[in-house]
Amino acid sequence: MAQSIRTVGVVGAGVMGTGLAQALAVSGHEVLLVDRTEEILARAEQQIQQGLRFGRVLGAQGAGTDRRVVAKRIRYTTEYEGFDGADFVIENVTEDWDIKRGVYQRIDAVCRPECVFAANTSVIPITRIGAATGRQDRVLGMHFMNPVPLKPTVEVIRGHHTSEETLDTARQLLTQLGKEGIVVEDSPGFVSNRVLMLTVNEAVYLVHEGVASAAEVDQIFRSCFGHRMGPLETADLIGLDTILQSVEGLYAAFSDSKYRPCPLLTRMVDAGLLGRKSGQGFFAYPTTAAS
Predict the structure, then answer these.
(1) What is residue 61's predicted lDDT score, i.e. its pLDDT?
(2) What is the spatial distance between Cα 150 and Cα 19, in angstroms, rounded to a whole number?
(3) Catalytic residue among 27, 30, 92, 143, which?
(4) Which residue, of 139, 158, 175, 202, is most buried by count of CB atoms within 10 Å of its CB?
(5) Given 92, 122, 246, 278, which residue is catalytic?
(6) How do 88-91 and 180-185 pair as beta strands?
(7) Quick one: pLDDT at residue 134?
């Protein structure tokens, strides 16, 4: 039987964590959003306020939603105090195993035994994450897509020890969020990123080798396949640093040369060309950089 969910802890106030906190608050949940510094949290609060102002226009919240009431459901904190009252925790920190492991050890010590942990990861195996806790049956993956408030489907990953009750609880939360979950088995990259990261990395190779420009690569995918975005515009949206971490994670997990990161991708990350978040990636985003 699924557990009832009222309070959700969100770890990490980056793009994904901020979008999640907003979507959870709109759906009526109390939210604890934790990150390392007050500066990061202040930026997240500003983005959520902006998201709530535009959410009605974009269809992310109902016409009768009072954004001031919704905003008060989110508590911003640099401490894990209050997580002992959380029914569900969603982790969104960077794809660095040492950092993730530290977070899970910390929340495992604070949260009640029945609290479910969901990893919003793109490549790290859920079974490995579960092993860092004392509740392996209550750990699963929930791979949300960006922007979270507008994406209707979530890739749900079953770890080796994940129980059916945990999956039911996750499905219940997704229903409350107005989203559908597709359950897949645990494997590095799961389904979405195992395919997407390979596609993006190969698209970068095409630019690196001078076969086509970034604009030409993306235009072929939009015009020939009807994709809304090309692979390189998608990479800019996700963040080239996140793309590189994911490709490196797949390369390490499978020891397969097909996941070897393109040198151009590595060089762009070294140069600080991270996509929308920095204002410049394969394409320019001057308004993003200004904000």
Answers:
(1) 56
(2) 9
(3) 143
(4) 139
(5) 122
(6) unpaired
(7) 97
Instruction: Give the residue ranges of the chain where pLDDT is below 50.
Output: 289-291
Q: What is the pLDDT of residue 291?
A: 46
pLDDT of residue 60: 55
pLDDT confidence of residue 1:
66
Residue with tokens 């559908």: 180
Handedness of CA 26, 31, 35, 40 (dihedral sign): positive
Give the end-to-end CA distance of the chain in Å, rounded to a whole number. 45
pLDDT at 66: 81
Pinpoint the alpha helices (H) of 59-163. Answer: 67-71, 97-110, 126-131
**Helices in 111-238 by DSSP H: which ranges?**
126-131, 164-176, 192-208, 214-225, 231-238
Q: How far, in Å, CA of 291 to CA of 279, rounded?
A: 9
Residue type, 234: T
Q: What pLDDT does residue 96 have?
A: 86
Q: Are strands 139-143 and 7-11 parallel, antiparallel or unpaired?
A: unpaired
Q: Which two tokens stand for residue 133?
A: 């806790």
Known catalytic residue at 185: no
120 part of the active site? no
Q: Could you tell me how far CA 106 lies from the centroid of its own chain?
A: 20
Give the whole-angstrom CA distance, residue 82 versus residue 77. 9
Residue of 27, 92, 120, 193 marked active site? 193
% of the chain residues with pLDDT over 70: 94
Catalytic pick from 29, 91, 120, 155? Answer: 155
CA distance 2 to 181: 15
DSSP one-letter code for 257 = G
Let me know if 155 is a catalytic residue.
Answer: yes
Is 38 tagged catalytic?
no
Phi, psi of 110, rounded to the nearest 5 degrees: -100, -40
CA atoms lying within 13 Å on the CB side of residue 123:
24
DSSP lists the bridge partners of residue 141 as 119, 157
pLDDT tens digits along 61-109: 555 568 889 999 999 999 998 999 999 999 999 888 899 999 999 999 9
